[in-house]
Amino acid sequence: MTDKNTKPEKKNTKGILLRLGKYVFKQWPLFLSAIAFTLLSNQLSLLGPKYSGAAIDAIELSGGVDFAAVWENVAKMAVCYVASAILAYFLAVIMVHLSQRIVYTMRKELFEKLNTLPVGYFDTHPTGDIISRISYDIDTINSSLSHDLIQVMTSIYTVVGSFVFMWNISKPLILVFAFTIPASILFTRYRSKKVRPLFSERSKKLGELNGFAEEMLSGTRSIEAYGKQDVISDRFNKRNDEAMEAYYRAEYYGATLGPSVNFINNLSMSLIAMLGGILYMLSVGGEVEETSIFFITLGGVAQFVQYSRKFAGPINEFANILHEFQSAFSAAERVFRIIDEEPEPADVPDACEIEKVEGFVEVDDVSFGYTPEKTILKDVSVTAKPGQTVAIVGPTGAGKTTIINLLMRFYDVDSGEIRLEGIPAMKIKREDLRKAYTMVLQDTWLFHGTIFENIVYGRENATLDEVKAAAKAARIDKYIESLPEGYDTVLSDDGVNISKGQRQLITIARAFLSDAPMLILDEATSNVDSRTEIKIQEAMAELMKGRTCFVIAHRLSTIQNADTILVVLDGTVTEQGTHDELMRLGGFYSTLYNSQFT
Amino acid sequence: MKFLVSYLKPFKWKMLVGFLIKVTGTVAELFLPLILTHILDNVIGTLDVKNVVFFGIVMIICAAAACGCNIVANRMAAKVSRDFSVKMRKDLFARTLYLSSADTDRFTIPSLESRITTDTYNVHNFVSMMQRMGVRAPILLIGGLGISFFMDARLALVMLATLPFIFVIVYSISRKGVPLYTKVQKSVDKMVRVVREDTQGIRVIKALSKNDYENRRYDEVNISLSKDERRAGTIMGSLPPIMTLLMNLGITGVVAMSAFTVESGASSPATVIAFIQYFTLISMAMMVISRIFVMYTKCAASANRIAEVLETPESFFVTEDDSEPNSESFISFENVSFSYLGRKNNLEDISVSVPKGGTLGIIGATGSGKSTFVKLLMRSYEANSGSVKINGRDITSYTREELTSMFGVALQNDFLYADTVEENIRFGRDITDEELIRGAKIAQAHDFIEELENGYSHILAPKGTNLSGGQRQRLLIARAVAARPDIIILDDSSSALDYKTDAALRKALSTELSGSTVITVAQRVSSVKNCDIILVLDNGRIIGKGTHDELLESCPEYREISDSQMGGAFVD
Q: So what's the pLDDT on residue A2?
């Protein structure tokens, strides 16, 4: 796992902003039309007051009301407002589409990234935290992007426009801003720097809370069995308190930002009123020449104040929005962290595709540890010729499953080499290598879908008949057919309609269907009762025929017939050979074998 | 919305104080333009510098007051939202854990998860936004309305005429919006489910190179979530423009109307101009209010989903049964039948009785009802007919605490979590260190725990993935036996143990915990053959009952299983 916390904060902020920007600009047609619509709609709604002014002028005529002119302007007003409303609605629709496209893309990228991550990532990261990123964090980014971004973009127009007008009216008064704008910027930057870590903390804590909730929810049965709901709730509450405290701290310190910037703006308005008043008095008193830049009329002061308010409006708004941006930033950081996560290393450039796999596997002097400190496997060597069965025996925790992890390249060896058909596994395209194996694991995995979909998962283009044949081989056909919906029965989450053993049989049927030349069975029948297991054995034997098999089993009768038995103790192969050879050796295996008769 | 109101009630005083502070700040801020106008209209003309400076300073004071009040009010609001959310989420989580198994099945785990997470965030967001934004707009609205009535009641009535329309539209759009957002949340559930499944099945997915398939599967839910969000957004997005339009048409009406009132001399043009100024203010306030409504709709959909869980009626009831304790028939099933889905019986006419300290073995094919038996005994589900008794009393007469304190349970592929080994065994119970270690020793787990880094303080990976299958099972058994419960249930929980370890475990159980009644669900005859009574289940029915030797005689199926396993013992 790469730790990216050490990255300098500042660079990070810019990077995130840029990347968020990229998502937006990828949708540039929508983005540009959103800006155009906003400006247009604003412009139209400004026309409304203009016509209402004209209408009132027509009312105000000294010679009585000019009804014709009033009606005309009233009609124009109505048209403008209706048009503006229609534009505003279109804008809303565009914004929804824009933000949904961005969010859709983000979710997609995040998920697709997940699938490329090494297995180890999932062994060390809580599912709930991943879910929190893909739902809550992306949602946070969404609400900020969809609403605030356009607002900021369009307000730039207002800000620049007002500034130009003010510049033309009185340059000395603008000096007030020379003082207050830097003050706002400095203050904002100062606060942001302080508040950013708080917002990051807030997202992180929420992720932890979700991680905890997810973990506990998957254990509701045990919690219920032990009646420990209250204890678990207390622990949840502790994390809940922490998460909400982090939220509160971010809000507490973030709360100063908006009002303070607002205050600075109000301050400039007050200063302008005072200074403007003084300048006007000087101008009236004749102390200031009409040509001087200090000269100002009363109307000038009034206008300047008007524009300065327009100018300040978006800046206030922006300061308020900045608050939301902060949380969006922290959320984005968490999302990007997964997207930036190291995927499984790419296949080497000259990686080859292997078309025909006979099933010749060599494990040559392999050592491996999940962490550098602790070696799990030491100098393991074994050869499996096509069609042979290698059984791996040893106490729990000795490293049997680790060998499987290495064969499948879920993890890569630290030293030594695994070869398939004489080609180093590292030089074979990972996908091809994995496709060469079929795997049945102790932990059954089925997804929400029909039984048919779950079995056909092993080979996507299989027909219903082939699926049925696989189910038959796995001895689950009768059960499936007894269900009212048969193969179309939807397997619900941790469903009550199907037992653990039956779930495992379905995964075995899935394995039967896939036509990989090699087979890995990791306690494949641990959930299956032995009567069924024996029935499957025959089918398994059929399945294993002609295939190279790696078997971790708990039945000595399965192991007995293996071509090579590998005894793994504490990560090293202590015994290796056929049943007869190992029995003659009189080591661990023979003791184990004999113990069943005592 | 009853739910939201009842949760906000405890905060009403705090919210009121915060509200008043916010009002003060808002009023102070609203004074600014008034003073400004005053300076421009009346003060500058006097050519008195002192006067100008004076009012300028008043403005600065007002601005400072506004700033201070807003900060304080925002902080108070944050505090209220924090406390509110803590409470809401706490109750929701606790209720979720107390849901009956049937209710949990009905809601599904992914949905419960997204209710605890995204739905509470939605509600939280609304509560927090409402306090921050919901003050200024109503003040402007009410103040503006009041002033406009004061200025010209007749013109104000024209404006008032738009209100019923606004009300009807807000009402009908919000009504449409809630189901739309409910649908969005349902799609979130589906998305969460796929992500969850994917993280759990990553090995299988990679082994079968199903990346593309999974991406497509995710894309489906992603697209439908986006579609639902778009639909909700498109409908709700119409609210603000419609409201603005109505307000603006109101202004237009006022202008038209004023032509007549001015003509008749009832109003002056100056009033009309001022009137329109205020009207603009009101319509801006309306905009904000309509945004709040949009957010409210989203919140309401989520709040309903939360309330749905919170208001699920407690299905755990306690009956009266003061029968004498009966240690001879400590656990008894009398003609028990049960069906999960109400179609086919998953257990039918089960009768068995086990004395205190006795051992019961259950064996049978997959799907024969072994685990269902255990679930009924623990009252995870209620039997449809017949009765389940413990110590002579019907299990429905025990309280939840009484019931669970009697059991120690190890289920297959059960629940380990990211915490220390010690904590995973202790599982929040009051267990001394000696008892804990004793439990680990009985479960044959002590030795491997000692070898772990930091021993009992070793931190497990989520779901215990850094342990082997057999190690996980032994931890679960240690958890089950540590508290010396009256009844120990080992549901297929030693399948990954090697023969020797399993035998040692059996021996330790019988010598160390002779007072406990042990129920073993297993697939190996060797695991159950020393039990006092063995049940052979098939398709939910008992097809054999007795000791190992009796069953070898009387039950051909049992004999078949036993024969098949002879000489075919298990190693790890």
A: 38
- In tens, the pLDDT along B228-266 reads 999 998 998 888 889 888 888 888 888 888 888 888 877
For residues B269 and A571, give the distance between their C-alpha atoms in angstroms, rounded to a whole number: 96
Radius of gyration (Cα) for chain B, nearest Å?
A: 35
What residues of B are in contact with residue A410 (Cβ under 8 Å)?
203, 206
Residues of A in contact with B39 (CB under 8 A): 273, 277
Across the interface, whether the CB atoms of B105 and A219 are under 8 A apart is answered no
pTM, two decimals, is: 0.82
B128 at A interface, C-beta within 8 A:
yes
Give CA–CA dist B57/A549, Å, rounded.
88
* Per-residue pLDDT at A1: 36
A361 or B43, higher pLDDT: A361
**Topology (CATH) of B331-565:** Rossmann fold (3.40.50)
Which B residues, 282 through 321, put their C-beta within 8 Å of a C-beta on chain A? none
Q: Are strands A572-577 and A564-569 parallel, antiparallel or unpaired?
A: antiparallel
Q: Is B556 on the interface with A (CB under 8 A)?
A: no
Retrieve residue A275's tokens: 């200074």
CB < 8 Å from A in window 39-58 of B: 39-40, 43-45, 47, 49, 52-53, 55-57
CATH value of B100-185+235-311 in 3.30.470.10, 2.50.20.10, 1.20.1560.10, 3.30.70.920 = 1.20.1560.10
Q: Cβ B116–A460 below 8 Å, yes or no? A: no
Task: Place A3 in a pLDDT band, splitting at 50, 70 and 90.
Answer: very low
Q: What is the per-residue pLDDT across A114-128, written as a single tens digit (0 to 9) for each?
A: 888 888 888 888 888
Residue range A475-494: mean pLDDT, rounded: 82
Distance of alpha carbon A228 from its chain centroid, rounded? 32
Q: What is the pLDDT of residue B354?
A: 92
With 0-12 / 13-18 / 19 or more C-beta atoms within 10 angstroms meaning exposed / middle / buried, residue B320 is exposed
Of A131, A229, A370, which has the smallest distance from its Cβ to B97's Cβ? A229
Q: What is the pLDDT of residues A88-107, one digit of tens each?
A: 899 889 988 998 999 999 99
